[in-house]
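Table S2 (continued). Query chain:
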Amino acid sequence: MARTKPAHPPVMLPSNLTVSKEQAVLALLRAYRAGAVLLGREQWRLFFETGRFDRNHDVDKVTFAAVIGAANRVQMCRYQVVVQLQGWVSNRANEFRDTVNASSLPSDTKHMLHTINRAGAWFSRTDVVMKGTGEIISVEIRRLARSITHHVMSEHRPPDLSRISMRLDHRVGSIAKPVKAMQGGQVGWWVNLSTREKGRKIAVPLLIHAYHDRRPGRATDGIQVNQRDGRLTFGIVTDMGESCTASRAAYDGSGVIALDFGLYMLFATSEGQLLGQGWLKQLRRYDA
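Corresponding output:
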């Protein structure tokens, strides 16, 4: 799997955009979310047919374009959908492992199940081979693996793609540009957006605040658009690669931090960080 640069979750900024611009952005976001739902169905079908999601699966070039719009926007939406689904399935793989470990199955059966789980081959139709021995895992064990996977999946709701945020970059003209303070010092960025109307672009002003200005990292050309409680917000994606490298290089191992140990919350630090949330629930699972 290719490594990606560390990214910081964007701080969502409000905008004082006009009513007409707001309606255009809302139309774009609704179309993006509707397309994400359709792309999610396509990816789940692939998963249960092949055992894999595929962000490059681009067979239907008509349906999704009709809903989302430009092909590059469809591509970005598909990438985002696949990342969300892969994250959800990765958590289920951890639960699969815990379920097998806690069972009374023979050790060789557990070993085969773990091999299937590590390969993500719960629904794959190709043979799964044991490393070292070259033994092909039997149909019965594969069937058991699918049964366990269905069980752990049934315990959780899959991601709700109908409320996904919209993440765009320069490929669709969605470039966030810093500007000199405007509108009394409130506006710090302008975001260019290609709308659903062919050839129409709009400029969206972003209202900044002190916390956003203090954030480390390098602002990229990527943006995130969301709507909650009837309000549009915009975020500028930040690349944390250089900042993290500099922080590690500057750290000399000195300094004091206070830790408050607990069970429900494993550690609370003197700097306000909460580490190990939900630890007691996990501890009870280990105990069982």
